[in-house]
Design brief:
Layout lengths: L1 E14 L2 E14 L3 E6 L5 H8 L7 E6 L10 H7 E4 L12 H11 L7 H11 L15 H13 L5 E5 L7 H16 L3 E5 L11 E6 L2 E6 L1 H5 L2 H6 L6 H11 L11 H10 L2
Parallel strand pairs: 3-7, 3-8, 5-6, 6-7
Antiparallel strand pairs: 1-2, 1-4, 8-9
Helix pairs in contact: 3-4, 3-5, 4-5, 5-6
The structure holds adenosine-5'-triphosphate and magnesium ion.
Magnesium ion (MG) binds next to helix 1.
Length: 276
């Protein structure tokens, strides 16, 4: 089953009589259950692309199917947003209530979920992100990572199929990032389709595929190894390769050739130990 099929999508922001073309001729296919990481320099259109997927921005040009729904079909926008939930960058901007369980229930109430179903669904969503013991807490008493997990629970309570994380770890400390990433990986293992936008290269190592974007275009899609060990490709996309890859090429430039280009620091150590 296809989670997302997009054909020749283009998008232009219009403001003050100025046109700013941001996405150009993007075609993507995402299988249900895939974990896709979207990489690209600032302003290349990553957020714009995912906002088209759940109808936060109107699709203008091209074809798009998200879980068999067309985002242009306004009567089904609510269903689309339930199926395709988003977690944003700033955990503090995502709270609407002063009690965790109320906050997680907010979306359910908006969707007229029968009141008797709500406690169970809230409890289940909080358990999925390991926050079941914080039901009665006020969000401001939580750490950044815990806040993001509550925001995730709010999305999960809606039982979505596709989860989009738009730099959801970028404002967190390392511990918070680890917590959110662990949850994300667990959701992927449960079969959810994941789209993650991030600037941290090490966060995309477990992705099934990377979409590499540059200036509104999809430059290439491929496995993390394929994309991240290609120095020229990353330079073209205005991104810095992972440390291990940079060291591999620096060594190569000075005449030392490792057997293969490592992706992680562990692999780099292995390769260095093999050197005679
Ligand atoms: N609401 C808007 N109105 C006009 N232009 C916008 C708007 N939102 C974004 N843009 C412009 O569209 C381009 C792409 O923005 P977008 O936010 O999709 O990029 P991004 O890849 O998510 O960047 P970042 O890594 O900084 O989050 C940028 O040039 C940005 O200035
Ligand atoms: Mg963005």
């Amino acid at each position: 089953m296809q989670a997302v099929t997009g054909k020749q999508i283009s998008f232009t922001y219009e403001y003050d009589g100025v046109s700013n073309p941001v996405l150009e001729d993007i075609s993507i296919e995402i299988e249900a259950g895939e974990f896709i990481a979207i990489l690209g320099a600032n302003g290349c259109g990553k957020s714009t692309l995912v906002r088209l997927l759940n109808g936060l921005l109107p699709l203008e040009k091209g074809e798009l199917k998200v879980w068999n729904l067309d985002p242009r079909q306004e009567s089904r926008l609510w269903e689309l947003r339930r199926l395709c939930g988003m977690v944003f960058q700033n955990p503090d901007n995502q709270f609407v209530s002063s009690i965790v369980e109320e906050d997680v229930a907010f979306g359910l109430r908006n969707y007229d979920t029968p009141e008797e179903e709500i406690p169970e669904r809230v409890g289940r969503a909080l358990s999925l992100v390991g926050m079941q013991e914080y039901e009665r807490y006020s969000p401001h008493m939580l750490s950044g990572g815990q806040k993001q997990r509550v925001a995730m629970a709010g999305v999960l309570a809606m039982e979505p199929e596709i989860l989009i994380f738009d730099e959801a770890t970028s404002m967190l400390d390392p511990q918070g990032r680890r917590e959110v990433l662990a949850c994300l990986k667990q959701l992927h293992e449960m079969g959810k389709t994941i789209l993650m936008i991030t600037h941290y290269v090490e966060e995309v190592l477990d992705a099934d595929r990377i979409f590499l974007m540059q200036k509104g275009k999809l430059l290439k899609s491929g496995s993390p190894r394929e994309i991240l060990t290609d120095r020229e490709l990353l330079t073209q996309a205005e991104l810095i390769p992972p440390l291990a890859v940079r060291i591999y090429y620096d060594l190569k430039d000075s005449g030392i050739l490792l057997d293969r280009c490592p992706l992680t620091n562990e692999e780099l150590v292995e390769e260095l130990c093999r050197l005679k």
